[in-house]
Design goal:
Number of strands of chain A: 18
Largest interface: A-B, 91 and 95 residues
Strand content of chain A: 25-35%
Number of strands of chain B: 18
Order of helices and strands of chain A: EHEEEEHEHHHEEHEEEHEEHEHEHEEHEH
Helix content of chain A: 25-40%
Oligomer: heterodimer
Shape of chain A: globular
Largest sheet of chain B: 7 strands, antiparallel
Chain lengths: 393, 477
């Protein structure tokens, strides 16, 4: 299945597809499939179904997009709980009616579902200032193939009763359970916002500016890097009250203009459009990606190590490199090793995404052992996303 | 518990003979943490000179079949560091090096014994801080914060410890060392950092922590508003949130707490108030006045009869003083008190207050309420006299009712203190059988021998609700 406008040419070849329109229907399909030993792949909008690697085998593709109702929304509590198939756009419209939002920026909000966003564990540019969906996740209802239903976390902001099963779901790529509902903390829509794009000719120029912004104590909403060797665009944004935005705009511009050339400023709704363009990130690029996690102050080293297109969230220390073409498994391994020679000594790590090589190969044995055991606890029969390259397990 | 002959010597060879204590007088300080009415009897105490010594000690204890409990400063309020099954207490408080403090990358790498406020003090010279600020921050350790996923008054805006942990080095119960994450985001695989954070030392011993540092706000606006009732104060909080104002802190003190503070310290708080709200906004100076005026106006609109806005740092400190002295004040006006940290949906605060009043009538004990009003985290203080068996019994019942109230109102039995031994009897009611089964299986997966802080968080199969309330945790291994 490849949706319109969705990148990647790796379809899911499933023997059967189910599109339940209620949680009860989903539970029946899951139970029946599990009882027959079928391999089930839960799927939201399918936008990141080829992450972390391609789906290798699916007997049943369980499409959750039809299960999309609000469950509870209490604006005064700053909490919302929805069914997992609700789209990000649908959620945003519901929250905006009360002047609130989830600060998540993804390329296909009409298609991407809340459950898919949780399962992918991905974050958009505003993670730098507002945290990621993982940070906002308060609780979830999850169906396990053997009929168990988990109600993890709660609907309140603070909860330390027992182990955090909720955040285990973030980035689990459907390998632990089928997410039926999820609860999040929300926030008021900022009164004002501003973004700027500045061009730099060198990785060192980018790094110096990033370090200066880091030291400045400014509360940036995002700091994103795009480009390739010798031609980089650093995009910064701030949000908040009008007075705060104006004050930070002046400070950020002064720092960024010293090492680069300002190409454009955006304020208010235009800043929102600018952010949406940034949210596309590397996801419209063809071929595999190499995700490099590296301490933000050491980003220059890894930029200098690759001539591929880079998409980096500077303050989170995450850079994705796109060679822009398909690679063989050996080429993937070579590239991981090459980037790892820079990232490793700097305290970082490298994993491939959308590649013909799974992430498990690059996960330390001790961690793999823990992950495998956890997976077996949730899904003893190995029914869920078994054909999917699973994260580190 | 009898220790195998030669164990102390074996451990002494790792950490140095002086750092293994077995004499009764040396063990007594480690019988409990700040939850003092439940105690355990450790067989020995191990101090460490370096984090590298932890793994071989854990392996030696594993070979001997001796349970172990990691301990930081011992400020926990749920008995998480109490060695209820005996064995060894691993004291990590001497591991207090800040290994790296990186202002450009806004992170720090620390050993588990670093005191919370010491890290902030070190980071402040770069305009940064460690955001989680539990009340015990001047003594509690970062390792303890990780173990209990600590919060604090500023959670509403800044989140809990888990939101600030980037990486962990953990000695697993089998003695193997796992490095989870680091100074950057997006480690592959499941979020094991989140699993370990808040696991109260039951899944391993944390020996290194990489934390995110947060810019220190450049300006504050602190407001004290006095209301006729808790309902009015609660409505004012709702009005602020509806207006898009998210303060960094929103603290509520009810009439009884205000009275206790005034009786003890005479700070000039309005004792006629049904509730006092302390609102603190932080950020840049620009816009702070407008935000402060909006908040003050919304409070007046909900019936506040006093609204004081701090104009100087001294005035700000003065407005906070009453809140910070509340615990001490309760200790001065009541022979004994029990505190709790339940959470309810914030808008259910008036309902919770009515239930507390009902409990007062039913059991004949007074309850004073402190609350992190923004996130619904309530700290009801039950005033009683432990020397009176009837009052002590009534207090246990009140504690049980408070926990059950939180569950009924859609909240949780603990928002920041943890389960420990204190609330283990309520876990089955709180999380349900399937969730508890998964938690138990995770624990068995990581600690099949059951040696890593046994008797905490996950109740034994045969535990019955309310076990805690009797103050006699029965732990079976």
């Amino acid at each position: 299945m490849t949706g319109p406008g969705i990148p990647g040419d790796i379809p899911v070849k499933a023997s059967a597809i189910a599109e339940p329109s209620s949680i009860d229907q989903a539970l029946v399909r899951l139970r029946d499939a599990a009882a027959s030993g079928a391999l089930v792949v839960p799927c939201g909008g399918g936008c990141f179904i080829n992450l972390p690697g391609p789906v290798r085998q699916a007997d049943l593709l369980l499409l959750m997009g039809g299960i999309n109702h609000p469950v509870l929304y209490e604006p005064e509590e700053l909490v919302v709980r929805v069914e997992a198939g609700m789209s990000l756009a649908g959620l945003s419209v519901m929250l905006a009616a009360k002047g609130q939002e989830v600060p998540w920026d993804f390329p296909w909000p009409e298609r991407q579902t809340v459950g898919g966003i949780v399962a992918s564990g991905l974050a958009g540019p505003r993670r730098a200032g507002a945290g990621s969906p993982r940070n906002h996740l308060l609780g979830a209802t999850v169906a396990l193939p053997d009929g168990r239903i988990l109600h993890t976390g709660s609907r309140v902001m603070k909860n330390v009763a027992g182990y955090d099963l909720t955040r285990l779901l973030a980035g689990s790529f459907g390998s632990l359970g089928v997410i039926l509902e999820a609860a999040f903390r929300v926030r008021p829509i900022p009164e004002d916002s501003w973004g700027v794009q500045v061009r730099y000719a060198s990785a060192q120029g980018v790094a110096d500016t990033g370090a200066e912004l880091g030291r400045s104590g400014l509360g940036l909403a995002y700091l994103e890097l795009r480009g390739s060797a010798g031609d980089y665009r650093l995009c910064a944004g701030v949000e908040g009250m009008r007075e705060e935005v104006e004050a930070q705009r002046m400070a950020v511009l002064a720092m960024m203009a010293r090492g680069g050339q300002v190409e454009g400023e955006h304020r208010g709704p235009a800043a929102g459009n600018f952010l949406r363009e940034l949210a596309a990130g590397p996801w419209t690029e063809p071929g595999p990606l190499f995700r490099v996690s590296i301490p933000p102050d050491r980003l220059a080293a890894v930029l200098q190590a690759s001539r591929d297109q880079v998409f980096a969230s500077v303050m989170s220390g995450v850079a994705r490199f796109s060679p822009g073409r398909n690679l063989t498994p050996m080429e993937v391994r070579d590239q991981v090793a090459e980037l790892g020679r820079v990232a490793g000594p700097a305290g970082g790590w490298v994993v491939p995404e959308r590649a013909p090589v799974g992430q498990e190969e690059f996960t330390p044995p001790a961690i793999r052992k823990i992950n495998q055991g956890i997976r077996k606890i949730f899904d003893p029969a190995g029914c869920l996303s078994a054909g999917r390259s699973t994260p580190g397990a | 518990m009898n220790l195998p002959a030669g164990l102390a010597g074996e451990l002494g060879a790792i950490v140095g003979p002086d750092n293994v204590r077995t004499a009764m007088e040396d063990l007594m300080p480690f019988e409990c943490d700040a939850l003092t009415h439940i105690k355990g009897s450790p067989g020995l105490v191990v101090m460490f000179r370096s984090g590298e010594e932890v793994a071989p000690v854990v392996r030696a204890l594993g070979r001997a079949g001796i349970p172990f409990t990691a301990r930081g400063a011992g400020t926990g309020l749920a008995g998480g560091a109490t060695p209820v099954c005996g064995g060894a207490v691993l004291v990590l408080s001497r591991l207090k090096r800040i290994i790296e403090l990186n202002p450009e990358g806004r992170y720090a790498v620390v050993e588990p014994g670093v005191v919370n406020s010491e890290l902030t003090r070190a980071a402040e010279k770069f305009g940064l801080c460690f955001a989680p600020d539990p009340a015990s921050q001047s003594v509690c350790t970062i390792g303890g914060n990780v173990a209990s996923n600590s919060g604090g008054p500023h959670t509403l805006k800044y989140g809990v410890t888990c939101d600030h942990v980037l990486g962990l080095e953990v000695v697993l119960p089998d003695g193997e060392i796992a490095v989870l994450g680091g100074a950057c985001e997006d480690a592959p695989g499941y979020d094991l950092r989140a699993l370990i954070t808040g696991s109260e030392g039951t899944l391993g011993v944390v020996t290194g922590i990489t934390v995110r540092l947060t810019p220190v706000p450049r300006a504050w606006k602190t407001i004290l508003a006095a209301f006729h009732s808790l309902e009015e104060a609660s409505r004012a909080v709702s009005a602020m949130i509806s207006a898009g104002i998210i303060p960094a802190a929103l603290e509520i003190m009810d009439r009884r707490i205000v009275k206790a503070v005034e009786e003890s310290f005479k700070l000039g708080l309005p004792v006629e108030a049904g509730a006092i709200l302390i609102i603190e906004m932080d950020g840049l100076p620009q816009g702070m006045d407008r935000a402060g005026e909006s908040a003050a106006s919304l409070c007046r609109g909900q019936g506040a009869f006093i609204v004081k806005v701090a104009k100087t740092a001294e005035e700000r400190a003065g407005l906070w003083l009453g809140r910070k002295k509340a615990g001490a004040a309760v200790g001065r006006v009541s022979p004994s008190y029990a505190t709790h940290d339940v959470v309810v949906p914030r808008t259910r605060l008036p309902e919770a207050a009515r239930r507390f009043a009902g409990m007062e009538s039913q059991y004949g004990l007074r309850i004073g309420l402190l609350s992190h009003g923004g996130d619904g985290n309530l700290h009801p203080f039950v005033f009683y006299d432990e020397r009176d068996p009837a009052q002590a019994e009534a207090r246990i019942r009140v504690s049980r009712d408070i926990a059950r109230m939180a569950i009924e109102l859609g909240g949780t039995i603990t928002g920041e203190h943890g389960i420990g031994v204190d609330k283990i009897g309520f876990m089955a009611e709180q999380v349900g059988a399937d969730d508890l089964g998964v938690m138990r299986a995770i624990r068995d997966h990581l600690d099949p021998a059951g040696l890593c802080n046994p008797g905490k968080v996950i109740p034994p199969f045969d535990s019955s609700p309310g076990l805690v309330a009797q103050g006699r945790p029965e732990v079976k291994r």
